[in-house]
Design brief:
Layout lengths: L2 H23 L14 H12 L4 E5 L7 H10 L3 E5 L9 H23 L6 H27 L3 H25 L7
Antiparallel strand pairs: 1-2
Helix pairs in contact: 1-4, 1-6, 4-5, 4-6, 5-6
Length: about 180
């Protein structure tokens, strides 16, 4: 990779991280579609009694031995959903999580800029558009299946997709500026 590609990836990763931070902490896009559980203390007590220290991703009701044949009957009689469970003592936000988020966005930006560098796109708009399309593809590939199969709220899905697409739009803008064709620079 050339220095310009690496620079564009690094600056794009920083732009992604800054935007995602603003989208979550200032605009509140991370909590769109989320609700608080009514009678939370009773539910938390039942979870702690039932799951104890077993961190995990739980799907309910369980399909069981009957498989799909008996599952519809269970769905007709019971609530259903996904639950990410952590026992008491979890941290609200740790430095390691922010580092992981930044590194993830840095890798995403580097990969998008690397792919851009492999195209022959010379125009500013076409370079921005190419990277933005990568973001649209990535946001569809992850968010639409969660909405479709697991019932994630549509407004949560839309807000998260918006955040991701803007991430890649910013990377595209940075990359288009940093990686201008030499004749135009």
């Amino acid at each position: 990779m050339t220095k310009r590609v690496l620079l564009a990836g690094l600056l794009g990763g920083i732009a992604m991280f800054v935007w995602a931070s603003l989208a979550h902490m200032v605009l509140g896009l991370d909590s769109v579609g989320m609700k608080e559980i009514p009678n939370e203390q009773a539910i938390l007590g039942a979870l702690q009694t039932g799951l104890g220290n077993s961190t995990g991703l739980y799907f309910f009701p369980a399909m069981g031995r009957e498989g799909m044949a008996g599952y519809q009957s269970k769905l007709d009689r019971n609530p259903s959903g996904l639950l990410i469970y952590h026992p008491a003592g979890a941290k609200a936000m740790e430095t390691g999580q922010l580092v992981t988020e930044f590194l993830t966005e840095l890798v995403e930006a580097l990969l998008a800029v690397f792919l851009l560098s492999r195209t022959g796109l010379a125009g500013f708009v076409s370079r921005v558009g190419f990277v933005t399309l990568i973001g649209i593809l990535a946001s569809i590939a992850t968010n639409v299946p969660y909405w479709n199969w697991y019932g994630y709220p549509a407004n949560y899905t839309a807000a998260y997709m918006f955040t991701q697409i803007v991430n890649f739009l910013l990377v595209g803008l940075v990359a288009a500026l940093v990686m201008r064709p030499r004749a135009a620079a």
